[in-house]
Design brief:
Helix content: over 70%
Number of domains: 2
Strand content: under 5%
Number of strands: 0
CATH topology of the largest domain: Rna Polymerase Sigma Factor, Chain: A
Structural class: mainly alpha
Order of helices and strands: HHHHHHHHH
CATH class of the largest domain: Mainly Alpha
Number of helices: 9
CATH superfamily of the largest domain: RNA polymerase sigma factor, region 2, helix turn helix motif
Largest sheet: none
Shape: globular
């Protein structure tokens, strides 16, 4: 397919005009990144997979709402954010149970000393991330783990770029403090 080399925005325009194969190309480009984004939010592989599928379902369903001047990635992460919020609102208890089961499974899999040390650092960071307020956690994930720029995050969240920068700064400061508290415990 020649669309493979097209920019995301052109592929989305093709999809909006009825070429659903273009969504397949976008899926190949972004499904792993979305999965990892959701995995960092939920700590559950199954749920992350489901949410990733939900995003691409919504991309196909709402392709007519795509506005060309917006970057596709920003539009996609806005959909992802809404999918996560919708899920969290309706299935909070289920997600918490799956989250706990995943942490227990990870604990049982790690055995040697080097892996235990990595696991302890990961758990301390994970625990620190979990203690951050939702907005701060989201901005850290989008900026540091997904590599989005503050102006892109601003478009996704609806906050000003200045507010995103301030929130990111505060989140990093809080995350450092929380991480080192968890390491000392």
């Amino acid at each position: 397919m020649t669309e493979v080399k097209l920019p995301d925005e052109d592929l989305m325009t093709l999809a909006r005009n009825g070429n659903l194969d273009a969504v397949g190309v976008l899926f190949e480009r972004y499904h792993a990144r979305l999965f990892n984004f959701f995995l960092n939010l939920t700590r559950c592989r199954e749920l992350s997979s489901d949410l990733t599928q939900t995003v691409f379902y919504r991309i196909m369903k709402y392709r007519d709402t795509y506005n060309g001047p917006n970057t596709f990635k920003t539009w996609m992460y806005r959909i992802a954010r809404n999918a996560f919020t919708d899920h969290y609102r309706t299935r909070k208890r289920r997600m918490e149970n799956e989250n706990g089961e995943l942490k227990l499974a990870l604990y049982n899999e790690l055995s040697d000393e080097a892996e235990k040390e990595k696991k302890e650092k990961y758990e301390a960071l994970s625990a620190a991330m979990d203690k951050l307020p939702g907005k701060q956690k989201e901005i850290i994930l989008l900026s540091r783990f997904e590599g989005l720029k503050y102006n892109e995050i601003s478009e996704i969240t609806g906050d000003s770029v200045a507010n995103v920068k301030v929130t990111a700064h505060r989140a990093i400061k809080s995350l450092k403090k929380l991480y080192f508290e968890n390491v000392r415990e």
